[in-house]
From TrEMBL:
PROSITE patterns: PLD (PS50035). It comes from the Bacteria. Residues 205-232, 379-406 form the PLD phosphodiesterase domain. The keyword Lyase does not apply. This is Phospholipase D-like domain-containing protein.
Length: 462
């Protein structure tokens, strides 16, 4: 009899605690002023699977939280190289606290993995003071083994070497760190961003550092979409190597990348931020504006600038992205731009490396096609590059995918390039991608269409 009462008491306690957690999560959603789509997705999950969805919500459901354990917002410093105003996109970003575009930058586009690899290796070997590397994915393979050897050699020369790795993006290396032993023994400083096994309340597993910053002497940076593994770069041509983009900047824009890396490193290492150096002006012709986004940026400056640029476009909006799961406001903006006569193109892989993302994007792609927007499915190797052209005003290049995770959750960084040469080179590269693409999204049966539309309910969390 006593056992029955105890069992009943435990059962009711469990139910009451569950209901309280559900109420707490719903109140938290309202307090955070989440988007209706995001709220509906979480509410559906909580109603259907409350004891699974509620804990997941408190782990995954917040982004710009204030916490003494969360990476705090940082301010980037305006430099003397900043121009008055490059164009309206520059103006929107400035009004959101982003430093203006700088002149005097040398800017080189690297479209091939072999070229990116040789440039990266050359920059490591030429460094005189410091090498700061930050990546989302780092795999231990034949390509990175060579890079590790070069880093060890530079450290033995007395060069400062820092390596920042996202713990979730590089989880195999995080759980098996033996390949990093030689680096650490040589004095290379290695840190993981938000270690997975750290104290739960210090760890925001949903907020990942997706930035790729390869910085040399705090004056030259390689950045874009390429991570460090044989899938992205290497000494030899590989037919199945992913299509991606890296670019090299030498000049005052590199200073802003140094500011971002210094803040990321200080958070991950729990040490004072390293000095970002001073802006160095060159004779380059590139106007470049560096734009970080994520929980350490007070507002959604990048997303607002992206929406503004889409609405302001008069001639074209060409988008290259591996994953396309956009916010409803961005979908509406693209549809309206097409209605106005703007040439809107989406270039995306026919099949990406994430089945769930492919299923989630399908209904959005069909919606674009139904609106008359050109959807180009790239038939070559996995297309991992991220870029957008807005008229002849500028090119947005960097680590940001066109999905909610990249635009509103992850730590990201892009460069807006406003020079005619860079815009022309980006256009030529996109035209080559288009030449290897097909334009037909396979029709969906009723079951497939039902599945795709259901995926839209969880799309805000992808």
């Amino acid at each position: 009899m006593n056992f029955d009462w105890l069992h009943l008491l435990l059962f009711h306690t469990f139910v009451i605690l569950g209901e309280l957690m559900v109420i707490a999560s719903l109140l938290h959603m309202v307090y955070q002023r989440r988007t209706p789509a995001s709220m509906m997705a979480w509410m559906l999950a909580i109603v259907l699977l409350p004891y699974l969805a509620v804990p997941l919500y408190f782990v995954l459901g917040s982004r710009k939280r204030r916490s003494r354990y969360l990476k705090t917002a940082f301010d980037m410093r305006e430099t003397e190289a900043a121009v008055t105003q490059a164009n309206p996109i520059d103006g929107i970003l400035r009004s959101n606290g982003i430093p203006g575009a700088t002149s005097g930058n040398r800017f080189t586009m690297l479209f091939e993995g072999t070229e990116a690899y040789s440039t990266l290796l050359e920059q490591i070997r030429a460094a005189q003071e410091s090498i700061w590397l930050s990546t989302y994915v780092l795999k231990h393979d034949a390509v990175t083994a060579t890079l590790f050897e070069a880093l060890i050699a530079k450290r033995r020369e007395g060069i400062e070497v820092k390596l920042l790795i996202d713990a979730l993006g590089s989880w195999p290396l995080y759980f098996w760190q033996f390949p990093l032993r030689a680096l650490r023994s040589a004095g290379v400083e290695v840190c993981f961003f938000m270690p997975i096994l750290r104290m739960p309340f210090r760890n925001y597993i949903n907020l990942r550092n997706h930035r790729k910053i390869y910085l040399f002497d705090r004056t030259t940076v390689l950045t874009g979409g390429m991570n460090l593994s044989a899938e992205y770069i290497g000494p030899d041509v590989e037919p199945k190597r992913w299509e991606d983009l890296l670019f090299r900047i030498e000049g005052p824009a590199a200073y802003h990348y140094a500011e971002i890396f210094a803040a990321d490193w200080a958070y991950a290492s729990e040490a004072a931020p390293p000095a970002p150096g001073t802006p160095v002006h060159t004779d380059g012709d590139a106007y470049v504006q560096v734009v970080p986004s994520g929980p350490d940026v007070a507002d959604d400056a990048l997303f607002e600038a992206l929406l503004s640029a889409v609405y302001a476009a008069h001639e074209r909006i060409w988008i290259v992205t591996p994953y396309f799961v956009p916010d409803a406001s961005l979908m509406q903006a693209l549809t309206i731009a097409n209605t106005k006569g703007v040439d809107v193109k989406l270039i995306t892989p026919r099949d990406s490396n994430h089945l769930l993302a492919d299923l989630a994007r399908s209904s959005y792609m069909r919606e674009l096609e139904e609106a008359g927007i050109h959807v180009a499915l790239y038939e070559g190797p996995m297309l991992h590059a991220k870029a957008i052209l807005f008229d002849n005003l500028g090119a947005m290049l960097g680590s940001v995918n066109i999905d909610n995770r990249s635009l509103l959750l992850n730590y990201e960084v892009v460069s807006f390039a406003y020079s005619e040469r860079i815009i022309s080179e980006t256009e030529s590269w996109m035209e080559k991608l288009l030449s290897r693409s097909t334009t037909v999204v396979h029709p969906a049966g009723r079951l497939r269409r039902l599945g795709e539309n259901l995926m839209r309910l969880i799309a805000p969390q992808l």
